[in-house]
Amino acid sequence: MRSLFLGFTLIVVAITAPMMAAQKVELSIDASKTGAKIDRNIFGQFAEHLGHGIYEGIWVGPDSKIPNTRGIRNDVVQALKAIKVPNVRWPGGCFADEYHWRKGIGPQRSVTLNPNWGGVIEANTFGTHEFMDFIDQIGAEAYVSINVGSGTPREAAEWLEYMTAAAPTTLAKERAANGHPAPYKVALLGIGNESWDCGGNMTPEYYVSQMKIYSRFVRNFNPEQQDKNQMLKIAVGPGGDGPRWTDWTETVMKAYQQHTWSWDINGLSLHNYTVGHWPPSYASVGFGETEYSQILKFTLEMDGLISKHSAIMDKYDPDKKVALIVDEWGGWYAPLPGSNPGFLVQQNSLRDAILAALNLNIFARHADRVRGANIAQMINVLQAMIITDKEKMVLTPTYYVFKMYVPFQDAAFVPVTVDAGWYTHGDVALPRVDAIAAKDTKGKLWLEVTNLDPNRPVEIEASLAGITAKSATGETLTAAKVDSVNTFGSADTVMPRAISAKVQGGKLTLKLEPKSVTVVSVEQ
Ligand code: AHR
């Protein structure tokens, strides 16, 4: 019996051993060769009036039993402060092109509907002042999307005057009477949202004529944003890679090339969700390796999409004055069973953490052109950082990736050469490892390495030139399964944990768990 068992054990070991053997991957990094700055704005967030993204996710009202500051929940603020959110895009999305700002200010709020997202009541209790209070509490800047689809240039111009005028105009006095005498800062302005679709189904030519008008008349009057820190105006950009989208980019960028003193844009947006096929049908939890590998394959298409639109932008803007702002991205899956399909509720798994790392790395590699991005969406909607249910809150695997990447905010990109090999599953072949490196503002070198392979660990050997490396420490994020999630009852299933790395003779060695995201800092 005993020998039978031993024999069986040996067979199992023989079968599983090659699967589990660590794969060696060599990287080389020259820290003296820094490239473009990885703009902190690529770690931006998106908060739309959609489902429980704003109401319940951020806003509970001052009378709520949930601890809050002026109606904004404290637990959410505390969590978001820790990931140093650079900017929040608001109020939409499709919602923005039906938003009328006057309904969301003052003591009497108009109650309207939210036809895009479930047709529910929009109480407008979270309006301009509440949004500005929220971003102030988390330490972020405002990315305000104005209503080009169903509003007017005058309505948008007055909103900006209301928010930003310091001089005692009637609108500035109204803002003061509503509790905020000092002008607000608006760092980024979105001139419409998906104007080719939910934002008004415009042709590129029609949009361009609208864009010029809004760019001209929607002014920021904040005295602190006149010379330095000027508001950046972001035009609607493409939503895919076919001729319809390249034509859109061509039309907007051609107009930009010929722009006169009277109007300008500083950014072109790009929307790209990892969805597989519309309508979204991939499950956000309860899936296996097939769906894991397919979704990662789809997500890596972001790189080609950025390259394609960047090449068009280069033709009309070789100096790269106009940034590409990927202001909607992330995994978009089937709604969770039992949820309102209009609320875009989904779970957030280890797969999403890996997806987030791969996209952030793509943005970093395109840092000369991609100078902003906003994951969709911040709380309770799509690929969220945070999930809440009444007083309960849980941080998702994606949240932890954003936390681990904080050191990359505004760091200088350092190229990494990697011979990654392949992870294959069925007909999907993916690079086994993805990596970026950067030097932070204090000169410290940071390395991120993602092991996409869900079955095999990886032994990293990185040769480090351009610095005298002494030691390295880091954190890794992984879990038992590709679809592991954090829940209210088990909030620490997918959490980063400390790891050690060895530095010797200019080489850094590090073991990566299967399906993991790892960030390491190198001490000199
Ligand atoms: O993020 C959800 C929706 O996706 C946004 O409102 C819209 O811009 C996009 O189509």
Short description:
The chain is α/β, with parallel strands linked by helices.
List the helices and strands and how they pair.
Elements: H1 2-20, E1 23-30, E2 44-46, E3 68-69, E4 72-73, H2 74-82, E5 87-90, E6 112-114, E7 120-122, H3 128-138, E8 141-146, H4 153-164, H5 170-177, E9 188-191, H6 204-217, E10 232-235, H7 243-257, E11 267-274, H8 289-299, H9 301-316, E12 323-331, H10 350-365, E13 370-376, E14 386-389, E15 392-395, H11 397-404, E16 412-414, E17 416-418, E18 422-425, E19 428-431, E20 433-439, E21 445-451, E22 458-465, E23 471-477, E24 497-504, E25 507-512, E26 516-523
Helix pairs in contact: 4-5, 6-7, 7-9, 8-10, 10-11
Residues 48, 92-94, 193-194, 328, 376-377, 382 line the site of alpha-L-arabinofuranose (AHR).
Structural account:
Helices cover 27% and strands 26% of the residues. It has 524 residues and is an alpha/beta fold. It has a 10-stranded mixed beta sheet with strand order 16-20-21-26-23-24-25-22-1-17. The protein has an 8-stranded parallel beta barrel with strand order 2-5-8-9-10-11-12-13, surrounded by 5 helices. The site of alpha-L-arabinofuranose has 10 residues, from loops.
- What's the N-to-C terminus distance? 57 Å
The averaged pLDDT comes out at 95
What Rg, in angstroms, do the CA atoms define? 24 Å
Regions with little confidence, pLDDT below 50 for 5+ residues = 1-18
Strand content: 25-35%
Which strand order do you get reading across the main beta sheet? 16-20-21-26-23-24-25-22-1-17
Largest β sheet strand count, sense and barrel closure: 10 strands, mixed
Shape: globular
Q: How many extended strands?
A: 26
